[in-house]
Design a protein that fits this description.
The chain is of the alpha/beta class. It folds into three domains: 42 residues, Orthogonal Bundle (434 Repressor (Amino-terminal Domain)); 129 residues, Rossmann fold; 128 residues, 3-Layer(aba) Sandwich (Rossmann fold). Helix content is 46%, strand content 14%. The protein is built from 14 helices and twelve strands. The strands form two sheets. It has a six-stranded parallel beta sheet, with helices on both faces. A six-stranded mixed beta sheet has the order 7-6-8-9-10-12, with helices on both faces. Helix 1 crosses helix 3 and helix 2 packs across helix 3. Keywords: DNA-binding, Transcription, Transcription regulation.
Length: 345
């Protein structure tokens, strides 16, 4: 029989950091009396050993802080253009207003920078909890934030979020509906322009896309992974339309890329929807302002943000929560999709 795993204690953390047990307590309760380098060393040792002061974390989480944190690893310029996050943040704010709370929004350049930022927010009592977005496979934020004991809600499928309470949409089912709809119209060459391949939800959508094509006995069509900016969607669309066996339908991962794709089709003289059908994702106002109007997988993004925030307040209050699936994006057909009728259909 193997020996039981030794439980890490505050004494072990103190010894490894070269400080007293009292110093560890001071660090995690954010009390004065330690230099900043010493605090940082204690936190680093605790992370390495996998130790968290459970009673302290519970105590901190019950002390109300009227601010919720949200860090986004996105370029500032893109954030101002992308409809999803504008709607998502408006949903967050709708609940925060009811609770007389505020949102602390920061843009970061990497997940490591976000980990450091979340630790600073929590240690300095700047936030009462945090909303975590854009999960990757084996996301590096999970363990450090668990150790810190930050009340948090993850936006993502539970398979990606490592046990952090999560709110999510069934993207796989939505992708399957989109592909089946286009196939029912008569499309046999269906392509996809997706977000960065490292993002967990992009991987889920990619797998669902390929699985559904196989189920329909359709040949796998090109998938292009790119950023979410309009110019990246345009570049991806141009490459697909220059392909010798170009698709007759394209599914996009956001509205901004779909609008850009519509512009490229006009530039290249490809008629939408006669020669090319386009299907957007999220269904923001952009989809109704184009000509032709864009079909989309409609998603109540404002309501999604509100639901995530309500879940976070449950976590902060210590109420039991389970992964919460919100409404699956559903098809809204408009003028950009039709049966292929062009010469290359």
């Amino acid at each position: 029989m193997s020996a039981p795993t030794q439980r890490i204690t505050i004494k072990d953390v103190a010894a490894a950091a070269g400080v007293s047990k009292g110093a560890v307590s001071i660090a995690f309760n954010n009390k004065p009396g330690l230099s900043e380098p010493t605090r940082e060393r204690i936190f680093a040792v605790a992370r390495d050993l996998g130790w968290a002061p459970n009673s302290s974390a519970r105590s901190l989480s019950t002390q109300r802080t009227d601010t919720i944190g949200l860090a986004l690893c996105r370029p500032a310029r893109l954030l101002g253009l992308e409809p999803f996050y504008m709607e998502f943040i408006s949903g967050i704010e709708s609940v925060l207003a009811q609770q007389s709370c505020s949102l602390l929004l920061r843009l970061v350049s990497s997940l490591d920078e976000e980990i450091d930022l979340q630790e600073t927010w929590w240690r300095k009592r700047q936030i009462g909890g945090s909303i975590l977005v854009d999960f990757h496979q084996d996301d590096p934020r999970i363990e450090p934030l668990k150790i810190l004991g930050i009340p948090a809600v993850a936006v993502g499928h539970p398979d990606l979020t490592g046990g952090i309470p999560s709110v999510w949409t069934d993207d796989a089912s939505a992708v399957a509906e989109a592909v089946r709809y286009l196939a029912a119209l008569g499309h046999r060459r269906i392509a996809r322009v997706g977000g960065p391949s490292g993002l967990g939800h992009s991987a889920i959508r990619e797998q669902a896309f390929l699985t559904t094509l196989r189920e329909l006995n359709l040949e796998p069509s090109p998938q292009v992974s790119t950023g979410f900016a309009g110019e990246e969607g345009a570049r991806a669309t141009r490459s697909l339309l220059l392909h010798p066996d170009r698709p007759t339908a394209i599914v996009y991962d956001n509205d901004l890329m779909a609008v850009a794709g519509l512009g490229v089709a006009a530039e290249m003289g490809v008629a939408v929807p006669d020669e090319l059908s386009l299907l957007a994702w999220d269904d923001s106002q952009l989809c109704r302002l184009t000509h032709p109007t864009l079909s989309a997988m409609s998603h109540d993004v404002h309501g999604f943000g509100a639901e995530v925030t309500r879940e976070l307040f449950d976590v902060i209050a210590g109420r039991a929560v389970t992964p919460r699936r919100v409404a699956t994006p559903s098809l809204t057909p408009r003028a950009s999709t039709a049966a292929p009728r062009g010469p290359r259909a």
